[in-house]
Amino acid sequence: MFGITIPFVTFLGLSAPIVSAASWIRKSPSGFQLTASDGVYPIISALDAALPNQKFGDIIADTNHVCPNTPVVPRVDFLTDSYTWPNGASFDDRGTSAWFPQGITTSSDAYDNGLYEGYDVTLVSWHHTIKSDGKNKDGPKGARITFIDRSSPNNDRYRHVLLVMGYEDSSGKASFRTQELHAGGIMWYGNLLYVVDTRAGIRIYDMNHIYEVDDGAGSSDGIGRVGTKYQAYGYKYVMPQVRSYTPYSVPSSEVAIRFSWISLDRTTTPDSILVGEYSPEAEECSTNCRLIRFPINYETRLLTLSSPSGNPNVRVAVATEVVQHQRTKTQGGISIDGKFYLTQSGGNLITWNGNVNSQDVITTDFFPTLPQDLSYRKKQGDLWTLTEPVDARWVFGFNPKKV
User: Fold this and answer.
1) Alpha-carbon distance values, 372 to 106, 150, 324 (Å)
2) Residues 262, 275: contact at Cβ < 8 Å?
3) Which of 86, 157, 267, 338 maximizes the CB count within 10 A of its CB?
4) Phi/psi class of residue 142: alpha, beta or left (left: φ > 0; alpha: ψ in -120 to 50)?
């Protein structure tokens, strides 16, 4: 059943929640499985030997842009904090159409105390975009991660780091290239950064493997080993993929998982990740529009593996929860204490209490247009998201308990 359209209303200027008639269905989760790559990629040790491996604190100390504060974000009630991107004549992250922000995670995901190596940091993913036949498509520069140091009040500073994949070039030397990666959602857990790849699964990066490369004159077009130097389209730092999780199986009655976004849930035991699917058309919600949960190990920082087939040589991550909803264009999602929160392209916030006998609630126009990924800061008690459109980009937190 699809939702009933109800006129948007407000009360005292705030968005009014609307109880929908859309159904949520729980599915048997055990057939949804991921397989892990065989340890850390061997090329990483070769890159470690070839390039200066930077400490996390070195990246934070070398931030080179400032996030302007924005005390007000259009439509958003219960705001806890917010900022935007610079849009000057010489540098314009707020208005660029070459890069679009997508995912968000914070040091509160990395560690329960909210700090990573003593820093309060937010990470944001962007995907490179080019025009092809009049349409946007993922570009050759792949994806980048923004490291935002929020340790000093009202002085949010950041630097971009390019995501790459290592390989051995034709001369047998360690090199790297970019990946056409949408990076629609990210999740930081300990030293590992999880980045979803729409069809391929989850790519893993490591804070212990960030390299400095040549960003001098003439480096803006180079990628990987260029002569005696390493370059990354003018970026000073690169972060190579170290592991991956790829689809292993789904039940015969199900379609392949679409990895649109990801979030961490520290309110489950054990901790878990939630993966969700963006579906542009209502018809797709008969097969997609699913939320899929996998347990994660807080000691290894990796997904929990088992051998459900009985073959000890086949170890997979097995889903522990799968829910299907009827909401199109969900850009991000998260669960907190059993309650689900989803962002929707038009700016709606969707909540559901986890009971299949209950309907979801839509708060229309809760966000500016095109809200994206979600990340929860458990200690502070606020949810963070960001918006995508050119010249209308904000990063902000709000209090979910008031929704």
Assistant:
1) 15, 20, 19
2) yes
3) 157
4) left
Phi and psi angles of residue 182, each rounded to the nearest 5 degrees, phi first:
-75, -30
User: How many CB atoms within 10 Å of residue 376?
Assistant: 25
* DSSP bridge partners of 384: 375, 397
Q: Which of 395, 397, 398, 276 is nearest to 342 (CA)?
A: 276
Rounded (10°) CA dihedral 76, 258, 176, 59:
30
Residues in the chain: 403
CA end-to-end span of the chain: 25
Residue 137 to residues 73, 100, 129, 133, Cα–Cα distance (Å): 28, 11, 6, 10
Q: Are 338 and 353 in contact (CB under 8 A)?
A: yes
Q: pTM (2 decimals)?
A: 0.94
Q: For residue 121, what are the contacts with CB-CB under 8 A and spacing of at least 6?
A: 60, 106, 107, 110, 147, 148, 149, 150, 151
Model pLDDT, residue 15: 62
Of 19, 15, 17, 20, whose CA–CA distance to 1 is shortest? 20
Q: Which residues have C-beta within 8 Å of that of residue 399, sequence separation ≥ 6?
A: 78, 80, 381, 382, 383
| Confidence at residue 20, expressed as pLDDT on a 0 to 100 scale | 64
pLDDT the model gives residue 21 = 59
Cis check: omega of the bond before 140, within 30 degrees of 0: no
376-395: pLDDT as tens digits:
999 999 999 999 999 999 99
CB contact set of 309 (below 8 Å; sequence gap of 6+): none
Nearest to 241 by CA among 297, 194, 308: 194
d(CA 365, CA 75): 7
Q: What's the pLDDT score for residue 163?
A: 98
Predicted confidence at residue 23, as pLDDT, reads 83
The CA distance from 213 to 208, in Å, is 16
Tokens 């059943």, located at residue: 1
Residue 135, pLDDT score: 78
Distance CA 129, CA 131 (A): 7
Per-residue DSSP letters for 210-266? -EE-B-STT-TT-EEEETTEEEETT-SEEEEEEEEEEEEE--TTSPPP---EEEEET
pLDDT score of 131? 79
pLDDT for position 16: 63
